[in-house]
Amino acid sequence: MTLRESLVRLGCMAMSGVLAACPAGGDATTTSGASESASTGESTTTTTTTGVTPTEPTTSAGTSTTEGVGTTGPGTTTLVSDLGEATSTGDDGTTGAAQCPPPLEQPPGSWTSQIVPVEGDALTYVADDQGNRIADFSYAGYHRGEAPIPDVPMVLGIGPVDGDNTAHIQQAIDELGAMPLGVDGLRGAVLLAPGEYPIHGTVLLRHSGVVLRGAGDGDDPATSTILRAIGDEPHQRVVIVVGSGDNHKWQPELANTRSDIVSDLLPVGARSFDVADPSLYAVGDHVVIVHPCTDAWLAAVDGGGPGMDEPWAGNILPLVFKRQVMAVDGATLTIDAPVFNHLDRALSQSYVYKADREGLVTEVGVEDLRIDIETLGGDDEDHAWSAIAMRGLEDAWVRRFTALHFGYAAVTIQTGTQITVADARALDPVAQITGERMYNFDVSNAQQILFTHCQATGGRHHFVSNGTSYTSGVVFHRSTSTGPNASSEGHRRWSMGLLYDNIVESEPAKAGLVVLGLYNRGDYGTSHGWSSVHSVAWNYDTGVDGVGVIQKPPTAQNYAIGGAGTFSGKKPPAPFDQPEGYIEGTGQPGLVPESLYERQLAERLCGR
Question: Which residue intervals are annotated with compositional bias (Low complexity) in the record (predicted)?
Fold first, then answer.
């Protein structure tokens, strides 16, 4: 039996980086969840195929439809999975294996959170008196976690040449990129044979459907592929740029597709809302939701909380969510993933428009290689600055990858959605230990991003959102941080919906160091203020010498549930005096579920 056949039979699927599991039963192949309309409170049903092999959607009456669009009621259309035919061997740690576990067990001594209790073998979510609640983070990663990362067949293979290999590798990538796309959106892989490849410039992985694959990410060129980044021309360059290279934050819009959102309130976690002109939208449309940064909203969030700096001002920090339309029911649109902040019409008139996807790169990956940046060590900053920058792309991945001696990041993601970084190591950056440096794994203006089974050492902010209110839905999962000089955190200006799930800290640069910050950064940097909101530390281990700071932003909340070590919202250890966030169960083993992300994904894919 093939993996695909196994997945369809089980009714669940492999997911990159985790063991994707269906709750008891395991025979569901569709997710049929009630989504509450923000304006009416009535339920609309979205049916979404989640198996690897798309199946026919069904109507609410049980009849069948065709061509990927189903009907769930009068005036309602829904989008089924658009996953194509990519396959995976499922034989390594990044593609996982499909299993359906027994019911969620609560053995003696275990406990569940008061705000995420288990009822009827499923998680429930309790909101506070401001409507704050923990959202569903399971939509992060390649194809929203609904498909394994594919093992793309090799089409071209090359080995190293003497001297600079930049043009040599680029030629192979562009040759493959000129070939036609397959029906699955893939062209194939360029395979770099074992050896050392000196790189004096920047390699551009700019064609959809192309994978750059090495022979391994170890330190032995006899068995692994090592890109050796040489020199500093241009100054502080990126070694590999994946995607179009555009970091436009989804601002390009298709003409005449903008409509106001007329729902009075979209609470955090909402996936449905009413629009003034629903005729502009169809199932499958890629849309951008914008909540402008108004004076009223700024007043509600205390000017951003920038300490002694000037309050945030002007329309420079809109709350932005890139989404796909999954259902249209009268005036109500249902989108593929939740919003990670309240969108309150009393504070700002939100609107939606169709995204202009011209030039967007999809189905690209980097895997099984090592980037070692040549430096003089110490505080040297005249060298390649980032190993991989992902810009202007969707449904992409980096896996089984190691980067060393970068100054900024091993992987930084900008204007990207639905991306997985799995089994990656970001080791020993070389730069001054100060601002704008050493963000080992960074998200700057990207959404629905999954980092899983990653390792960071010797940097400042190891797992960080250095974006602002354009960043949300980011999951850092089952990863380790060793020797940090500062905290993993939302870094500045209202990053939304970060989940730190089973992260282990060790050996901070000094005892008592803040190693996790879901908090106010006041007048740090450029009026950083409230750096992260509606964000969660779940079973986070701060280590014996680290501290996690959890504080409550105005109109929002941050959470630490379970975990080990020290958590506080008070000053000190917090750098600025603000209300403490929600902290529950520190040092108490047996939290159920152990991983919030894994359970949320399993419940969604299996229809819980």
Answer: 25-98
* Strand spans (E) along 428-554: 441-443, 447-452, 455-457, 463-465, 472-477, 480-482, 488-490, 495-501, 504-506, 513-518, 532-533, 536-538, 546-550
Question: pLDDT category, 129, cuts 50, 70, 90?
Answer: very high
Task: Report the distance separating Cα 227 and Cα 449, nearest Å.
Answer: 25
Query: Each residue of 363-397: pLDDT tens digit?
Result: 999 999 999 999 999 999 999 999 999 999 999 99
pTM higher than 0.85: yes
Q: Which residue has the higher pLDDT, 40 or 286?
A: 286
At 65, the pLDDT band (50, 70, 90 cuts) reads very low
| Residue among 517, 531, 503 at smallest CA distance from 573 | 517
321 phi, psi to nearest 5 deg: -135, 120
Residue with tokens 């729902």: 263
Amino acid identity at 582 = Y
Q: Which residues, at least 6 apart from 279, have a Cβ–Cβ distance to it below 8 Å?
A: none
Longest Cα pair distance anywhere in the chain, in angstroms?
Answer: 68
User: How far, in Å, CA of 148 to CA of 361, rounded?
Assistant: 19
158: left (phi over 0), alpha (psi -120 to 50) or beta: beta
Please, where are the H alpha helices in 62-110? none
Q: Which of 420, 577, 567, 439 is nearest to 495 (CA)?
A: 439
3-class DSSP state of 169: helix
36 has pLDDT over 60: no
Nearest 10 degrees: Cα torsion 198, 204, 207, 209 = 50
At 545-563, the pLDDT tens digits run: 999 999 999 999 999 999 9
Q: In this structure, how many other beta carbons lie within 10 angstroms of the beta carbon of residue 374?
A: 16
**Interatomic CA distance for residues 168 and 158, integer angstroms:** 9
Distances (CA, A) of 566 to 207, 434, 580: 46, 25, 14
Beta-carbon neighbour count of residue 119 at 10 Å?
8
Q: Which amino acid is at 605?
A: L
Classified as helix, coil or strand, 409 is: strand
User: Which whole-number Å values give the CA distances from 451 to 57, 314, 474, in the listed order?
Assistant: 31, 33, 8
| Nearest alpha carbon to residue 391 among 234, 214, 204 | 204
CA pair distance 389, 387, nearest whole angstrom: 7
Q: Could you report the per-residue pLDDT of 296-336, keeping only the tens digit for each?
A: 999 999 999 999 999 998 778 999 999 999 999 999 999 99
Rounded CA separation 438/442 (Å): 9
Is the model's pLDDT at 351 over the cut of 60? Answer: yes
